[in-house]
Amino acid sequence: MNPLEFVIAIVFMVLAYRVVSRVLQNRASRPTDTPEVNADLVRQIAEIEERVRVLERIVTDDRSDLRRQFKELGG
Fold first, then answer.
1. 2 three-state secondary structure
2. Cα 27 → chain centroid
3. CA triplet 43, 48, 53: central angle to 5 degrees?
4. Above 70 in pLDDT, residue 75?
5. Same domain (yes/no): 39, 71
6. Any idea what DSSP says for residue 75?
7. What global pTM score does this model have?
8. Dihedral angle over CA of 7, 9, 13, 15, nearest 10
């Protein structure tokens, strides 16, 4: 093995070590699936669903459509 190949091999091993190290750190820092996390996510989804229902009601309301049409006519 000539010196250039040896240097390239060392650089490759150092880079591979850093990549593997970062991947393992990222896995360790992820939030785990705990009941508290799941309950919080379920609560957030329920809030978003309620907001969407309210927005759908507003958009499909006949009075809202009339107001929008009057605003378009007026200016």
1. coil
2. 17
3. 125
4. no
5. yes
6. -
7. 0.44
8. 70
pLDDT digits (tens, 9 = 90+) for 6-38: 888 888 899 999 999 998 888 777 766 788 888
Q: Which two tokens stand for residue 64?
A: 């809202």
Q: Are residues 40 and 72 in the same domain?
A: yes
CA count, 13 A, side-chain hemisphere, 33: 0
The total domain count for the chain is 2
Rounded CA gap, 68 and 75, in Å? Answer: 11
Residues 53 and 75 in one domain: yes
Task: Look up the domain containing 72 and give its range.
Answer: 34-75
Residue 10 to residues 18, 62, 66: CA-CA distances in angstroms?
12, 72, 73
CB 52 within 8 A of CB 46: no
